[in-house]
Write a structure and sequence with these properties.
Number of strands: 9
Distance between the termini: 35 Å
Radius of gyration: 16 Å
Structural class: alpha/beta
Bound molecules: S-adenosylmethionine
Strand content: 15-25%
Shape: globular
Number of domains: 1
Oligomer: single chain
Length: 214
C-alpha cells in the first residue's frame, strides 16, 4: 500500500474511532476537546499535520533517520501518521492514564491491522519533561531528532530541547496564530525560529505549525 492510500485509511480509522468513543463522555465528538483531571486533551487535525510533515520531509528538516516525539501524544494519531505513513521511528508520551489507555488500545488495533509495521512506534505513559520516562521506554531523549507538541506545556519541552538535545534538533509547535494573546511567533530561549507552515485550508480551527531548530 502506498503512503497516500495508507494515509486515507488512517484518517478514516481515526474518524471512526472518534465517532464511536467519547472517553466515558468526557471527550466531545463535536468540539474534539476532552477535559481530564490532568488537563485538556484536544486532537490534532490529521490532514494539517500530514501536509506539514510532507513539507518538512521535502525540505530535509525532518527525515527517517532520527526519532520523532509527540510530547503529549493524546490518542496517538500524530505518531501513527509519522510511523505508519512516513516511516519515521516515533515515540508518543502521554501522562493522562485515561487518554493513554484509550490511545494505546487504538495503536494496538492499528498494529494488528498492519497499518504500522516495519517502523518502530513506542507509545508510553509518563511525563515528557522527565528523563526517567524516556529511559523506561528505551528511547533516550538525546536520540530524538524531531519533537512535536500541540500547545500543551510547550515551554517545558522547548526548555528541555534547549538544554539537552543535540544541535539541529527540530521543534514543531502546533499553535493558534489567530488568538490575540498568542498572535505572533513565540520565542524560546536556545531555539531559533525557522519557518511556519500555514494552516490547512480544510481545518476549521486554522492551526499552524511553527518550526524551530536548536
Ligand atoms: C492538546 S493534546 C494533543 C494530543 C496530540 N498530540 C495530538 O496532537 O492529537 C495535549 C496532550 O498533552 C498531554 N500532556 C501535557 N503535558 C504533558 C506532560 N508533561 N507529559 C505527558 N503528557 C502531557 C495532555 O494530557 C494532552 O493529552
Amino acid at each position: 500500500m502506498d503512503a497516500k492510500a495508507k494515509f486515507e485509511l488512517l484518517k478514516r480509522f481515526y474518524a471512526d474511532v472518534e465517532n464511536k468513543h467519547s472517553l466515558n463522555g468526557r471527550y466531545s465528538k463535536k468540539t474534539r476537546i476532552g477535559f481530564f483531571h490532568s488537563g485538556l486533551f484536544a486532537a490534532s487535525n490529521i490532514d494539517g499535520i500530514n501536509v506539514g510533515i510532507e513539507q518538512l520531509l521535502a525540505d530535509g528538516l525532518v527525515n527517517q533517520s532520527g526519532w520523532f516525539l509527540d510530547a503529549g501524544c493524546g490518542d496517538g494519531r500524530v505518531t501513527a501518521l509519522t510511523a505508519g505513513v512516513h516511516r519515521i521511528p516515533s515515540i508518543g508520551i502521554e501522562y493522562d492514564r485515561e487518554v493513554f489507555d484509550f490511545g494505546g488500545a487504538v495503536i494496538k488495533m492499528l498494529k494488528e491491522y498492519s497499518m504500522i509495521n516495519g517502523t518502530p512506534l513506542v507509545f508510553t505513559r509518563g511525563d515528557f519533561t522527565k528523563d526517567r520516562t524516556y529511559r523506561r521506554a528505551g528511547v533516550m531523549f538525546e536520540d530524538i531528532a524531531t519533537v512535536f507538541n500541540y500547545i500543551d506545556n510547550h515551554e517545558d519541552i522547548a526548555a528541555k530541547i534547549a538544554k539537552q538535545s543535540p544541535r539541529g534538533t527540530i521543534f514543531i509547535l502546533e499553535d493558534f496564530p489567530w488568538i490575540p494573546i498568542t498572535s505572533g511567533i513565540r520565542e524560546f530561549e536556545g531555539l531559533t525560529y525557522v519557518r511556519t507552515i500555514p494552516p490547512d485550508s480544510n481545518s476549521k480551527l486554522r492551526r499552524c505549525l511553527h518550526v524551530y531548530r536548536k
